[in-house]
Specification:
single chain, alpha+beta, 7-stranded mixed β-sheet, 6-stranded mixed β-sheet, about 20% strand, about 35% helix, about 500 residues
């Protein structure tokens, strides 16, 4: 009898496999980091073959920790870093180039050229997204333009495109598919039809022959071979949509914020896409089988947890990411120091690829403790800006913020977040909601769980933080943050 559901989370900095039991509790976990490749300033790449090797290793590791075999798994779901773009040879499986990561800015000029006189929102009515370096479509175009012969091979269907979910499903089953959530991040899918849009393909310059079939988020795509021999591959969701699903945000108005490499706030908007006028993204939240798709509004922040890694690896202020909390607690406040980490430009709500990071307000008084505090506050301030945009678009006041992701283990950050929002922040017992969402979707597809109400009953609160900052202090410091953000703009010359 199958007792477990597995989830593969192929993330920006690591891959992991988590095995869940019927109550949605973690039974085993295994994780492997992969290299971050920086060929030029602003360029970020991953080795897809290294990632595939790591995924297999994490699956074996998780199974071994439970002393079980694939026969004990009812299904596996996949969740992934979303806009990261890979093209590979259909016959050999060899990538034609490293994967271009979602943070990569090499398509800045192309995005501006595509915008032309029509502006950044040229395609927003079709795909829900602004023209930005973030999304997959321009990345595909760059590969086809820069690699000799790639466009001709793509038109003949000899090379295939996929985000990392598609790559893993193809490696596991041989099927070339993606789900609606990942497809909605390419700038190539029509939000209404949930299919590749011929107008977008023509305008951006991507041949249809290289694209995967778009499927729902919760259905059986095929049966795995190799390390998961015989296991149904039964779900795929982009990582933030998976977290929305794992937090059981199944009703319109319910939302969550995930704190990882970046920070992502999603709110369920029901069965119709809601256009944003305040810098948010309209995206597919999930689709279960043949049921109507559920949409979401999203605020995407590029640099949050990765800023802590940068402080560790590039500045050497800490030797482990977990040390940032203690260092930040060594001071009472930021000492007037603000850190805006626009390393890849600014995402929501600004969408400014010309921005670059700044540390503002430095004086002789500032210590590494103040910088550490400013690093944590940067995540909280960016989240507040996205929350304000979400409230402006939806006209719904935030009463509580559900949070998940690795950074939620930092209790100081969570208190700072509550103070800066002026609202309670709630963390569930299972904070690995990205993997949990993929597991839930896979379990629904094979009948391991009967319905979404069963999943709701699994949700439990672990911790809650309430605001303690005086409102006048909150608004005064927010004004200084906004001033620091202005200092990042227009750094990169458009020529």
């Amino acid at each position: 009898m199958t007792r477990y559901i597995a989830a593969i989370d192929q993330g920006t900095t690591s891959s992991r496999c988590i095995i869940f039991d019927g109550a949605g509790a973690i039974a085993a976990i295994d994780q492997r980091e992969h290299r971050q490749i920086f060929p030029q300033p602003g360029w970020v790449e991953h080795d897809a073959l290294e990632i595939w090797a790591n995924v297999q290793a994490t699956v074996r590791g998780a199974l071994d920790k439970l002393s079980i075999t694939p026969k004990d798994l009812a299904a596996v779901g996949i969740t992934n870093q979303r806009e990261t773009t890979l093209v590979w040879d259909k016959a050999t499986g060899a990538p034609i180039h490293n994967a271009i990561v979602w943070q990569d800015t090499r398509t800045d000029r192309l995005a501006r050229d595509l915008a032309g006189d029509l502006g950044q929102d040229r395609f927003r009515d079709r795909c829900g997204l602004p023209l930005a370096t973030y999304f997959s479509g321009p990345k595909i175009r760059w590969l086809l333009d820069e690699i000799p012969g790639a466009r001709q091979r793509a038109e003949r269907g000899e090379i295939l495109f996929g985000t990392m979910d598609t790559w893993l499903i193809w490696k596991l089953t041989g099927h070339h598919v993606t789900d609606v959530t990942n497809a909605s991040r390419t700038m190539l899918m029509n939000l209404e039809s949930l299919d590749w849009d011929p107008v977008l393909l023509e305008a951006i310059g991507v041949p249809a022959a290289m694209l995967p079939q778009i499927r729902s988020s919760s259905e059986v795509y095929g049966t795995a071979t190799g390390v998961l021999e015989g296991v149904p591959v039964a779900a795929a969701l982009g990582d933030q949509q998976a977290a929305l699903f794992g937090q059981t945000c199944f009703s319109p108005g319910e939302g969550k914020c995930t704190y990882g490499t970046g920070c992502f706030l999603l709110v369920n908007t029901g069965q119709r896409p809601v256009a944003s006028t305040h810098g948010l993204l309209t995206t597919v939240g999930y689709r279960i089988g043949q049921a109507p798709a559920v949409y979401a509004l999203e605020g995407s922040i590029a640099v949050t947890g990765s800023l802590v890694q940068w402080v560790r690896d590039n500045l050497g202020l800490i030797s482990a990411a977990s040390e940032i909390e203690g260092l930040a607690r060594s001071v009472e406040d930021n000492g007037g120091c603000y850190f805006v980490p626009a390393f890849s430009g600014l995402f929501a709500p600004y969408w400014r690829s010309d921005a670059r990071g700044v540390i503002a307000g430095l004086t002789g008084y500032i210590t590494k403790g103040h910088i550490a505090r400013a690093v944590l506050e940067a995540t909280a301030w960016q989240t507040r800006e996205v929350v304000e945009a979400m409230v402006a678009d939806s006209s719904v006041t935030l009463t509580t913020l559900k949070v998940d992701g690795g950074m939620t283990a930092n209790t100081l950050l969570m208190q700072i977040q509550s103070d800066i929002l002026g609202a309670p922040v709630v963390r569930p017992v299972v904070t690995e909601t990205t993997c949990l969402g993929a597991a839930y979707a896979a379990g629904l597809a094979v009948g391991f769980w009967p319905d979404t109400e069963t999943l709701r009953r699994n949700w439990r609160k672990s911790a809650e933080w309430s605001p303690a900052m005086p409102p006048e202090t909150r608004e005064k410091t927010f004004k200084l943050w906004k001033k620091a953000v202005q200092r990042t703009l227009n750094w990169v010359d458009q020529d």
